[in-house]
Protein backbone atom coordinates (compact mmCIF):
# COMPACT_ATOMS: atom_id res chain seq x y z
CA UNK A 1 0.00 0.00 0.00
CA UNK A 2 1.28 3.48 -0.89
CA UNK A 3 1.12 5.93 1.98
CA UNK A 4 2.58 9.33 2.67
CA UNK A 5 3.22 11.05 5.98
CA UNK A 6 2.47 14.71 6.46
CA UNK A 7 2.08 17.16 9.33
CA UNK A 8 -1.08 16.77 11.36
CA UNK A 9 -3.80 19.27 10.42
CA UNK A 10 -6.59 20.48 12.66
CA UNK A 11 -9.11 18.81 10.34
CA UNK A 12 -7.42 15.40 10.87
CA UNK A 13 -8.30 15.38 14.56
CA UNK A 14 -11.97 14.50 14.05
CA UNK A 15 -10.85 11.46 12.03
CA UNK A 16 -8.29 10.44 14.67
CA UNK A 17 -10.98 10.77 17.34
CA UNK A 18 -13.31 8.45 15.42
CA UNK A 19 -10.50 5.97 14.77
CA UNK A 20 -9.20 5.90 18.35
CA UNK A 21 -12.66 5.46 19.86
CA UNK A 22 -13.34 2.31 17.84
CA UNK A 23 -13.93 -0.44 20.44
CA UNK A 24 -12.06 -3.10 18.45
CA UNK A 25 -9.01 -0.86 18.03
CA UNK A 26 -9.09 0.11 21.70
CA UNK A 27 -9.21 -3.54 22.78
CA UNK A 28 -6.30 -4.36 20.47
CA UNK A 29 -4.10 -1.42 21.56
CA UNK A 30 -5.02 -2.20 25.21
CA UNK A 31 -2.78 0.50 26.76
CA UNK A 32 -5.09 3.41 26.04
CA UNK A 33 -6.38 6.36 28.02
CA UNK A 34 -8.81 5.46 30.79
CA UNK A 35 -11.68 6.95 28.79
CA UNK A 36 -10.70 7.32 25.11
CA UNK A 37 -14.09 8.89 24.34
CA UNK A 38 -13.40 11.89 26.63
CA UNK A 39 -13.21 14.55 23.91
CA UNK A 40 -11.76 17.26 26.18
CA UNK A 41 -8.91 14.93 27.19
CA UNK A 42 -8.38 13.96 23.53
CA UNK A 43 -8.20 17.63 22.45
CA UNK A 44 -5.80 18.56 25.27
CA UNK A 45 -3.63 15.51 24.49
CA UNK A 46 -3.35 16.40 20.80
CA UNK A 47 -2.72 20.07 21.55
CA UNK A 48 0.21 18.97 23.75
CA UNK A 49 1.56 16.50 21.17
CA UNK A 50 1.44 19.02 18.34
CA UNK A 51 3.37 21.64 20.33
CA UNK A 52 5.93 19.45 22.06
CA UNK A 53 9.26 19.69 20.19
CA UNK A 54 10.23 16.23 21.56
CA UNK A 55 7.22 14.63 19.85
CA UNK A 56 6.92 13.99 16.13
CA UNK A 57 3.41 13.16 14.94
CA UNK A 58 2.40 12.56 11.35
CA UNK A 59 -0.85 11.88 9.57
CA UNK A 60 -0.80 8.72 7.44
CA UNK A 61 -2.43 9.53 4.11
CA UNK A 62 -3.55 7.18 1.35
CA UNK A 63 -3.24 7.70 -2.40
CA UNK A 64 -6.62 9.46 -2.67
CA UNK A 65 -5.79 11.80 0.19
CA UNK A 66 -7.77 9.81 2.74
CA UNK A 67 -6.61 9.96 6.37
CA UNK A 68 -5.64 6.37 7.18
CA UNK A 69 -4.42 7.09 10.71
CA UNK A 70 -1.49 8.57 12.57
CA UNK A 71 2.03 7.64 13.59
CA UNK A 72 4.58 9.24 15.85
CA UNK A 73 7.78 9.16 17.87
CA UNK A 74 8.11 10.40 21.44
CA UNK A 75 10.37 10.18 24.47
CA UNK A 76 13.84 11.36 25.51
CA UNK A 77 17.00 10.56 23.49
CA UNK A 78 17.95 6.90 23.80
CA UNK A 79 14.39 6.02 24.84
CA UNK A 80 12.52 7.22 21.75
CA UNK A 81 9.42 5.15 21.11
CA UNK A 82 7.14 4.72 18.10
CA UNK A 83 3.35 4.63 18.21
CA UNK A 84 0.70 4.30 15.50
CA UNK A 85 -3.00 3.79 14.89
CA UNK A 86 -4.74 2.94 11.62
CA UNK A 87 -8.51 3.29 11.15
CA UNK A 88 -10.28 -0.08 11.18
CA UNK A 89 -11.64 0.24 7.62
CA UNK A 90 -8.03 0.24 6.35
CA UNK A 91 -6.66 -2.69 8.38
CA UNK A 92 -4.90 -5.59 6.72
CA UNK A 93 -3.76 -3.71 3.61
CA UNK A 94 -0.21 -2.89 4.66
CA UNK A 95 -0.89 0.70 5.78
CA UNK A 96 0.81 0.40 9.17
CA UNK A 97 3.85 -1.38 7.76
CA UNK A 98 4.23 1.23 5.00
CA UNK A 99 3.73 4.10 7.45
CA UNK A 100 6.32 2.74 9.89
CA UNK A 101 8.81 2.18 7.05
CA UNK A 102 8.29 5.80 5.93
CA UNK A 103 8.71 7.06 9.49
CA UNK A 104 11.92 5.07 10.01
CA UNK A 105 13.33 6.50 6.80
CA UNK A 106 12.56 10.04 7.97
CA UNK A 107 13.68 9.72 11.61
CA UNK A 108 17.40 9.04 12.22
CA UNK A 109 17.09 8.36 16.00
CA UNK A 110 18.33 4.93 17.06
CA UNK A 111 17.70 2.95 19.09
CA UNK A 112 13.94 3.20 18.70
CA UNK A 113 11.62 1.30 20.99
CA UNK A 114 8.06 0.03 20.79
CA UNK A 115 5.67 -1.68 23.16
CA UNK A 116 2.66 -3.78 22.30
CA UNK A 117 0.20 -5.99 24.12
CA UNK A 118 1.50 -9.55 23.76
CA UNK A 119 -1.74 -10.50 21.96
CA UNK A 120 -1.63 -7.57 19.50
CA UNK A 121 -0.50 -9.85 16.68
CA UNK A 122 -1.00 -7.22 13.96
CA UNK A 123 1.21 -4.66 15.67
CA UNK A 124 3.90 -7.24 16.44
CA UNK A 125 3.96 -8.26 12.76
CA UNK A 126 4.29 -4.64 11.67
CA UNK A 127 7.24 -4.14 14.03
CA UNK A 128 8.91 -7.39 12.98
CA UNK A 129 8.53 -6.48 9.28
CA UNK A 130 10.27 -3.17 9.99
CA UNK A 131 13.26 -4.75 11.76
CA UNK A 132 12.32 -4.41 15.43
CA UNK A 133 13.35 -7.31 17.65
CA UNK A 134 11.92 -8.39 20.98
CA UNK A 135 14.09 -7.12 23.86
CA UNK A 136 11.82 -7.60 26.84
CA UNK A 137 8.59 -8.77 28.38
CA UNK A 138 6.65 -6.83 30.98
CA UNK A 139 3.32 -6.83 32.77
CA UNK A 140 1.33 -3.64 32.71
CA UNK A 141 -2.13 -2.42 33.61
CA UNK A 142 -4.17 -2.04 30.42
CA UNK A 143 -7.08 0.38 30.79
CA UNK A 144 -8.91 -1.20 27.86
CA UNK A 145 -8.80 -4.65 29.46
CA UNK A 146 -9.32 -3.58 33.08
CA UNK A 147 -6.43 -5.78 34.21
CA UNK A 148 -2.68 -6.37 34.02
CA UNK A 149 -1.63 -8.05 30.81
CA UNK A 150 1.57 -9.22 29.14
CA UNK A 151 3.41 -6.61 27.14
CA UNK A 152 6.26 -7.04 24.65
CA UNK A 153 9.09 -4.52 24.41
CA UNK A 154 10.86 -4.24 21.05
CA UNK A 155 13.90 -2.32 19.84
CA UNK A 156 15.29 -1.23 16.50
CA UNK A 157 19.01 -0.60 16.60
CA UNK A 158 20.10 -0.36 12.96
C1 LIG B 1 -2.07 -2.91 14.65
C2 LIG B 1 -2.41 -2.07 13.42
C3 LIG B 1 -1.56 -0.81 13.45
C4 LIG B 1 -2.09 -2.88 12.16
O1 LIG B 1 -2.36 -2.03 11.05
P1 LIG B 1 -2.53 -2.62 9.56
O2 LIG B 1 -2.46 -1.47 8.62
O3 LIG B 1 -3.70 -3.51 9.51
O4 LIG B 1 -1.20 -3.50 9.46
P2 LIG B 1 -0.61 -4.14 8.11
O5 LIG B 1 -1.69 -4.23 7.09
O6 LIG B 1 0.63 -3.40 7.77
O7 LIG B 1 -0.33 -5.63 8.62
C5 LIG B 1 0.92 -6.14 8.97
C6 LIG B 1 0.79 -7.63 9.20
O8 LIG B 1 -0.03 -7.88 10.36
C7 LIG B 1 -1.10 -8.73 10.02
N1 LIG B 1 -2.26 -8.30 10.81
C8 LIG B 1 -2.83 -7.07 10.84
N2 LIG B 1 -3.84 -7.07 11.75
C9 LIG B 1 -3.90 -8.32 12.27
C10 LIG B 1 -4.73 -8.95 13.23
N3 LIG B 1 -5.72 -8.30 13.85
N4 LIG B 1 -4.50 -10.25 13.53
C11 LIG B 1 -3.51 -10.93 12.92
N5 LIG B 1 -2.69 -10.39 11.99
C12 LIG B 1 -2.88 -9.10 11.68
C13 LIG B 1 -1.31 -8.52 8.54
O9 LIG B 1 -1.96 -9.61 7.95
C14 LIG B 1 0.12 -8.38 8.06
O10 LIG B 1 0.69 -9.66 7.99
P3 LIG B 1 1.86 -10.01 6.94
O11 LIG B 1 3.06 -9.24 7.42
O12 LIG B 1 2.00 -11.47 7.06
O13 LIG B 1 1.37 -9.54 5.61
C15 LIG B 1 -3.92 -1.68 13.40
O14 LIG B 1 -4.71 -2.84 13.54
C16 LIG B 1 -4.32 -0.71 14.48
O15 LIG B 1 -4.12 0.51 14.34
N6 LIG B 1 -4.88 -1.21 15.61
C17 LIG B 1 -5.36 -0.38 16.70
C18 LIG B 1 -4.26 0.45 17.36
C19 LIG B 1 -3.03 -0.36 17.72
O16 LIG B 1 -3.11 -1.51 18.12
N7 LIG B 1 -1.85 0.30 17.59
C20 LIG B 1 -0.59 -0.31 17.93
C21 LIG B 1 -0.37 -0.23 19.41
S1 LIG B 1 1.15 -1.07 19.86
TrEMBL record:
InterPro entries on file: Acyl_CoA_acyltransferase (IPR016181), GNAT_dom (IPR000182)
Signal peptide residue numbers: none
Stretches assigned to the N-acetyltransferase domain: 3-158
Lineage, opening ranks: Bacteria, Bacillati, Actinomycetota, Actinomycetes, Kitasatosporales
Pfam families referenced in this protein's UniProt entry, alphabetically: Acetyltransf_3 (PF13302)
Official protein name in the record: GNAT family N-acetyltransferase
Species this chain originates from: Streptomyces polychromogenes
Entry superkingdom: Bacteria
Amino acid sequence: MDVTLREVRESDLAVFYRQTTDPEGIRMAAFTAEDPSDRARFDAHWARLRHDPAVLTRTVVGTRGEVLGHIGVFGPPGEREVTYWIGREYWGRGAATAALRALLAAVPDRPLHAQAAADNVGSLRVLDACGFTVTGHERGYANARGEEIDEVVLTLTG
